Every structure is written in C-alpha cells, then in structure tokens.
Fold these 3 entries.
Entry 1:
Amino acid sequence: MATRTPLRSTALALACTFAGLFTTAHAAETPKTLSSGELKVGMEITYPPFEYYEGDQVKGFDPEVSAALAKRLGLEANFSDITFPNLILGLDAGRFDTIISGMYILPERLEKADAIPYAKTGAAIMVRSNAEKKPATPEELCGLTVGLQQGTSWIPALQKVSDGYCKEQGAGAITINQYPTTSETSQALLSGHIQAHLEIDAASLLIVEKSRGRIAISSKGSIYPQVLGIYVKKGNAQLLDALKAALDDFKASGEYAELLKKYNLEEA
C-alpha cells in the first residue's frame, strides 16, 4: 500500500499567473462546489510536466487546464496534493471537487467516478543510456525488472504479457517493482535496481531531458495509448455538465490546442 503524503492545498493567484490568458465570459452557470468560489482539484503534484512545484507555485499541464476551466465557471482553482493511488478515494470522501491529474479513463475507475475525456497519450519505455538491452515493446521486457509508479494501469497490462507471451516463449517473467512516485522510479533506474521504467510519453520526455544523458527512451512509439479523464464524484451531474461545457468552450477558443501542443499531448 502506498504511503500517503501530507495533504497540501495550494491556491494559485490566477490573476497573476494566468493574467490575460482568458477573455471569454463564463461558459456555464457557476456550479455548486465544496467551497464557495473555488474549484478544488485533486492531483499528485510530483508529476512533471503534468503537475509539479516550482517554488511555491503549481505548474504544468493540469494546473493550466484547471485554471482555464475554473475561470470559465467563475471560480478559482485550488489544488489538493495527494498521492496518485488515493485520488479516487479522496474524491469519493469529498476532499476535492474533481481530479485533473493525468489519470487514464479505465472501467474500474468509472465504477467509482464519472469522467470527461480531455487528452490522449501513451507510455514510453526508458532505460539507462548505457544499457545492454533496450526494449522497444512490452514483449521485449520479458526477463527484465521493470519499475512503475503505484496505481498505474500498466501494471496489470505488463503482468498479462509476463504470464502469457513471456511464459509461452520461455523468455523469463517480467519482474514488476512499484514505487510511490515517478521520481523514485527514475532513481531506481539510475541506481540499477530496475532495468526499465515505463511512464507516460510527456513525462518520459522530461525525465530524459533532466537526466543529462543518463536515461534514454528505448521504445519507438507510444505503448498502451489511452485517454486521460477529468473525474467527478458519481451523482454530481451539475458539476460534470458544467465542466463539460467549460471544456467545450476552452476547445472552441483555440487555446486548448495550443496547450496540448506545448505539452506534446493529443486531443481526446
């Protein structure tokens, strides 16, 4: 079980950080939220480029999306920092209004919350630059130790490859090591505790850039491409509909396409 980090709430000064970014009127009637005038967004703020701290400011794709949607609803975005595996639990417990945190839309998650598609991406395989083996596909991970962040959807996918393809080929099982954060997974790769690290494309590019040549992407294209979702507690139709309307307005403005391009993502 993942160890929960302390819950931190960080309100962006939207008037300063995103001044002049939006000129549209409210895209929808301001919905009822947990705190008047605020849209509380749950996210794990240790996951660049999706969300991360720069000093005391929250930066990244998801904070920018959150701010844009909140603005269109006449609200101010406020961020609750919580570990990824606990986000759905926090939403259900009423700790925040919505989750916008690079989270795939999966059947098991839709049993507990409703989701709005907002972007599309896949995963990449990373290895040390001097690694002897540089797997390009999940099937080439047979016999290797692979690190992933806890709670990611690729864990059962890799287990299926290991139990099926790897076993049939007599190539050795995939050993899966899970870590609380993606940064800890990267450190495990650099220290030699794992031989490969599977992570979302956009995050992988930043990890490689920050590694100063020590980590490389070995896969040739996106692996397990899926859709990212904005999650809302089941039964909260008012907020779900309001966020859908705000997202549609954001897309129509052309600003959303620019934001997706900035973070190397595709529209869902």
Entry 2:
Amino acid sequence: MEASLLVAAPLPLAAGQRVAVLTADNALFTPRLVAAGRLPRLAVGMTLTPPAGPALMIVGVASVPGQDEIPAGRLYTAKALEAGVLPAGQTPFAVTKKGLALAWVTLSDKGSQGLRADAAGPAIAETCAASLPLALAQGHLIPDEPAELRALLLDLAVTQGFDLIVTTGGTGLSPRDTTPEATLGVIEKRLPGFETAMLLASLAKTPHAMLSRATAGTVGRAIVINVPGSPKAVRETLAAVMAAIPHGLDKLRGDPSDCGQG
C-alpha cells in the first residue's frame, strides 16, 4: 500500500515531532503534508516510510469540517520516528503496519479530577506489551460517565482504528459502575468465552470475583475488553485471554483459516 503526499518546502523534523497529514490542504495545520490524490484509509499504528527522510507513524485520526473554500477532509496526526528532512515535492510513502495498536481507558471519577494516580491503565500497557507485538499504546482517563465511554469506544475503534481496546474500572456494583452497560451499548459481537476465562481466572484468586460484570466483544475490527480497576486484577484477567487475542483479530479481518488447526 502506498500514500502519495505533497510537501510544500523541505521539512526538517525532530524525532517524535508531530506533523499533520491532510486529505485536503488546510493552512490552519502546520507543519503539514497534503495528499496528492486519494489516500488509502489510514489507521493508528501504521508507518509511512518515504524513499528519503524520516518515517512517520500515524498516532491520531480526526475529521476536519469544511469552511468557505476549504473542503471537509480527514486529519491524520503523525509522529516522526527519527530526525531528518522530508524533501519538497510529491513523495510516495510506503504504508505498513507491524504490531498492534492498543488503547487503554481508565474509568475513574477521582482519577479524572487528578485526585488519584492511575496505576491500572499503565498496567494494561505493560501486560499487553509483555505478550503482544505492539506498534502503539495510548491511554485515556475519563470519569465514570457511560455516554462519554460509548463515544470514546466508537472513536477509538471506528475512527482511529485501534486493534485492541481495554477498559479498567467500573465493573462492580457501585452506583457509578456502568462500564459493562456502556460497552454493551456499542459492541457488535459479544465474546462470552473471554468473559468466562477472565471470571474463572479471578475466581481462582478471590470469591469476590463473582461480583464482576466485565464484558468483552468487538466493535468494527477491534476487540474491546473490560477488566477490573486494580493493577493486580488487570494482570490476572488479561493473562487469561491474551493467547486468544491475535487469532481473534485475524478472524475479525477475514482470516479464512480453520480455527481448529494447530
């Protein structure tokens, strides 16, 4: 897959610097690269590699509304993977993806107000990185608001193109624990096997695990998993399903192989 992009003038980039990749030119964004023709559908975690200059990784996707003579378009936020200079003119970028894009979402009223440090979200990233090939991992911290979670899950899965989305917190019986209900409001295919495996793993540690209402399922081409709110429970429940995640994602993308093989 290839993306042809225009650079108005030689563009020096530092490692980690952000640059806008636009489907339609818009002077509000700088520095920027503009599509020369139709772009393939890009998603977070994809790498754009030019013949010369620094490679870029897509780390965000958003829609840009039209205004006056500027047409509506799509904004891809890219990160330079190394320092270098992109040459002026039209450049073909090879589009590849090596590894999975992970998004974790911590549900916490106190955490979202800065009143509590978030340890569970980083535990998701660490646990997944130890078992899965990750191209990108991003975290979000929001209050226990079901509408906000539903909107975020849809954005992460459908617009951004994350492969795996793991939420932590809000799976119990407290009045503000609404993560499973919000998740069920957007998932398209439920994964009861994931839910059972996580429950059994937790029950082996504590009988209180039977109070968890964590769910799992798919949204678009992403797998969404709820886990409890403690770092210990994050590691225990994810360990129970980690081996099935790569195969599940392959099937979501149309892999025709027999699930019974191997």
Entry 3:
Amino acid sequence: TGKSKTIAGIVLKLLPKLGNKKILLCAPSNNACDELTRRILHQFDELEEDYKGKVVRLACQPPDDHRLCEHFLDFMVMATQSLEADSLLPFRFGCAKVIMVGDPQQLPPCVLSQAGKEYNLSQSLYLRLYSILNDVENINSPVSMLRVQYRMHPEICQWPSEFFYNNRLLTHPTIVTRLEEFPLKPLYFYNIAISQHEQDSASSSMNRTETSHIRKFCTHLILYLYNYEQLDQDDSTNSDTDSLSSSSSDDESVFLNLSDPIIIQIQQRIAVITPYRAQVRHLRSQLPNHIEIGTVDAFQGKEKDIVIISCVRSGGSIGFLEDSRRLNVMLTRSKYAMYLFGNFTKLSEQNREWNALIQNARGRNLFENIGFLAPKLPFK
C-alpha cells in the first residue's frame, strides 16, 4: 500500500519545517531500515534536494538515550513488528510526536520465549493502540488506512484485498499499465500432492520435491525471460515470441550461462520465500546464486518482481502456515508475478484460509496438479 513511499513523502514535507532538528526513523529489522533508506534516497534524487546531514538517523529500534530524543523528531515505521517495550522507550524521555506505520493484518513481533508469549509480549504497541482507536468514528480519528496499493498486479491483489481487507484495498491504475507487457500469467498454483516434508536436526521443515520442482521452474523461467528480452530488443514478430512457449525442457540448465550479465539481472528480479529455515538452506544449495532466498518473516516489508513460494508442509500439522498474518505477508511481496508450490490438497483440508485461497485459485483457472511432472511456465 505504499507505506514506505508515504513515509518518504512525509519526511520530505517535514524536513523544511524542522529547523535544527532531525528525523529519527526506526524499524524492527535491518531489512526494513535498508528498504526505507532506498525509498527516501530515491525521493531525494527525484526532487534533486540536498538534505545531507539533515535527515535521518535510521535505527532498528527506538533510542534509549534521552539526548537523541532532544534532537530528533521520532518516527517509527513497520511498528507492527516492534516489541511494545521497545516502542515505549521514546516516551520515557518526553517524546511528544510519534507516527506509527504498520499493518495489523501482518506479522507481529517475534517472541520465542514461552513465558513471553503467555504474558502477551508479542503484542506491539501499534496493535494495542489500533485496537482501541480504530473504532473511533470521527474526522479526527488518529488512524488512517492506505487504501491504494502501488506494488502488485491486480490479479495478485484480488484475494488478499477480499479476504484480509474487506475489498477496501484498491490497485492504482498505473500498475496495470506498468505490468501489462509481462508475458506470463501473474499468478499460478502448482499442486504437488505426492510431496512429503521432513525435518532437519534443528526440527525445521524442508521439502526436497518442492525444491526440485522450483529449481526446474526457475531454470525455465530465466531462460524464457532471457529469450523474451532478446526478441524484444530485436523487435521480433509475435510468432517468434510464441515459439518460446514450446522451448522448455529438463535440460535447459545446459544453455544457461550464469555469468551472463543479463542472466544475472533476471535472477535478481526473482525471490523464493518459504516459512522454514531448513527449506531456505536447501533451496540455496540448489538454485542460482543471484536469486534471493529467505523466510517469509524476513521478507516482510520487501518486494520483488517475481516471487516463488515454497509452502513445504505436506500432512500433519501445518505449523507456521496456520498463521493468517504470515499468509498475508507471503501473498503480497510480488510486483509482476507470484507462483506457489505446495501440497495444496492437504493444506486446503486443514485450514480455512488456505481452503478459501485454493478454491479461489481453482475458480479463476490458476491451479494445476503436477505430481512428478516438471512444472510448465504459465503462459497467458
């Protein structure tokens, strides 16, 4: 919904009015700080403004030093993932202006201690205040919802908007124009009902069958996009482009020159995310080096042109996939396309949210059973 872009815009409006003060931006992770930094610098470059030394002290947590609070206007981003105790630190030193940005439908702070969970330490200050103030029905309500998203293809946005946001999340018209030339379907589900997950020595889950299918899919995808870009540069006819759809084979890795700069650029447009660290490690051992691979939790606040999801679990408890907030994060990271791999037969039997998602995909003809077969690219 453009949270980072909105924050960057607020920063630009505040800076000329602050005199000698600066803005302190805080986020709960290095990834979130890095993403916010990129957005702000991009805004500065667009406006050709020079605020060197003026902005912005980025930090992973609010300050615990009163001297910082005297010189900075506090600003918190991704506040839904900040521990409540950390978020209270600025108030200790008399901080009077705090802007919290977050999404109550996404992941809360990570608390591993069982005692901490029992005492509800995983609740953020943002969520506590949101639950109190969101029902205030007047023009001066301190809660504002960003209703227009600037990231996802509308085909990707449709189900999260319906299920998590009561159809209030809308796609900006420019997104359709920007993404219309992408040659593949923006959303597709590959059901691998024969897959079985296993656990490593740290009791984290992995699924070798999914990794194998994703490796083949990534090879096909990279080669296709490489050829597509080459044809586009050569201004070729539609018949040439159509011929690419039948060029996939299991031996395509032979034709990939992984040191080719264009191949590297294509890889850098792709992310593979999964709920489990063991699956992250296994995927990294099998996929090209320039594809970003990480957990769903670590990817909150980030985005990629193409996101591939490895669900892993296949029978028994569905573990991390039970959390609807994690599902929401998982489904809202991609810009151009999102492709899901998993045992959706089992997942739809075990969880209400997953069943609704799979039925929606089936009804939109975005679902395919692949079993042992290599996945084919989802051409439009």
